[in-house]
Amino acid sequence: QVRLVESGGGLVQPGESLRLACTTSTSISRIIVMSWFRLAPGKQLRELVADIASNDESHFGSFVKGRFTVSRGNADTLMYLQMNNLNSEDTAVYYCNVRGVQPDPPYRTFDLWGQGTQVTVSS
Questions:
Q1: How many other C-beta atoms can be found within 10 angstroms of the C-beta atom of residue 48?
Q2: CA–CA separation, 94 and 90 (whole Å)
Q3: Which phi and psi (to 5°) does residue 108 adopt?
Q4: Within 10 A of 68 (CB to CB), how many other CB atoms are there?
Q5: What is the pLDDT of residue 87?
Q6: Quick check: helix, strand or coil at residue 6?
């Protein structure tokens, strides 16, 4: 069973930085896209923070405004999310999401989620 684990969250003051990591318990093949989503307090829907496709093309939510970068890791660390100049609006649970296709028949698509890591930005 594949498990994704997010790490790196914590409590920081506005303007500070955090680096999140998404680690897998097992190697994952045929990943199409990896993403970071977040769920803010009181919200019902997760919002896209960043994603990175198999061709390394990346996208960011409009609220990022150049503050974040997403990068691939090595071995069991799938990717990182470097978050700079954090503000209170960034307070949320951040989730790692991996989508792809099974390497073996019947080649079903997969959509994996971690349990999330809490990011709190407060003065």
A1: 16
A2: 10
A3: -70, 150
A4: 23
A5: 97
A6: strand
Predicted local distance difference test score (pLDDT) of residue 1: 82
What CA–CA distance (Å, rounded) separates 45 from 43? 6
Contact at 8 Å (CB) between 98 and 112? yes
Instruction: Specify the pLDDT at position 29.
Output: 87
Q: pLDDT per residue over 38-50, tens digit each?
A: 999 999 999 999 9
CA–CA distance, 37 with 9 (Å, rounded to integer): 13
6 near 116, Cβ under 8 Å? yes
Given a contact cutoff of 8 angstroms between Cβ atoms, the answer to whether 83 and 18 are in contact is yes
- Spatial separation of the C-alpha atoms in residues 60 and 70, rounded to whole Å: 9
Residue-level pLDDT at 103: 85
Regions in the chain scoring below 50 on pLDDT: none
**Residues 5, 114 contacting (CB under 8 angstroms):** yes
Can the peptide bond before residue 106 be classed as cis, meaning omega within 30 degrees of 0? Answer: yes
Separation between Cα atoms, residue 49 and residue 90, nearest integer Å? 10
* Diameter over CA atoms, the chain: 52
